[in-house]
Specification:
- Keywords: Membrane, Signal, Transmembrane, Transmembrane helix.
- Residues 1-22 form the signal peptide.
- Pfam families: DUF3237 (PF11578).
- The chain crosses the membrane at residues 48-67.
- The chain is mainly β.
- It has a single domain, classed as Beta Barrel (Porin).
- It contains 1 helix and 10 strands.
- It has one helix at 2-23; strands at residues 31-42, 46-51, 54-68, 71-76, 81-87, 90-101, 106-116, 122-129, 143-149, 153-162.
- Strands 1, 2, 3, 4, 5, 6, 7, 8, 9 and 10 form a 10-stranded antiparallel beta sheet that branches.
- It is globular and about 45 Å long.
Length: 164
């Protein structure tokens, strides 16, 4: 009985390793598709102040436009803001905005990301919410991009993962 108790853990480990090797087959690699570019206009920042994690500032979104190959011109409505937090060496952005398309569809956009160092680029991940049948696919988009300061706010370039 003693030899069986020693053999059983070894057998379980061996079978587990074989299962992991069988599951390690490569999957189909995603491709990247350009989604849109946006110029976001912002208003005057509101300093919330220092909290234990850093300094919080709210920057209102007051307008802007976006354009991409799968979308009509989109207008940023003055319903949103960037809730940002700055700590030593880091800038964290959490922006929410509402977009109206030329066909009067509405899309809620949430971008969040981090700037590290001094290159002034914030790397963001983005989620969308819409009830529009035309843009329903955005509810499931895996989107990511860059956000950079401009003279009037931010310039955003967005891509999405696509599986062929």
């Amino acid at each position: 009985m003693r030899s069986f108790s020693i053999l059983l853990p070894s057998l379980v480990f061996f079978l587990g390793a074989a299962t992991v090797q069988a599951q390690a087959a490569p999957t189909l690699a995603p491709t990247v598709q350009f989604l849109y570019s946006a110029n976001i206009t912002v208003g005057l920042p509101v300093d919330v102040g220092a909290i234990p994690a850093g300094n919080v500032t709210v920057i209102p979104v007051i307008g802007g436009l976006s354009l991409g190959p799968r979308s009509r011109v989109r207008k940023m409505l003055a319903l949103g803001a960037d809730w940002s937090m700055q700590t030593t060496g880091f800038y964290y952005s959490d922006m929410r905005a509402l977009i109206r398309t030329n066909d009067n569809s509405h899309i809620n956009v949430q971008m969040s990301g981090l700037q590290q160092g001094s290159n002034n680029t914030i790397y963001v991940r983005t989620t969308f919410q819409t009830g529009s049948k035309e843009y329903w696919w955005l509810n499931y988009a895996f989107a990511f991009g860059t956000m950079r300061p401009s003279g009037t706010g931010f310039v955003v370039d967005m891509w999405q993962m696509a599986y062929t």
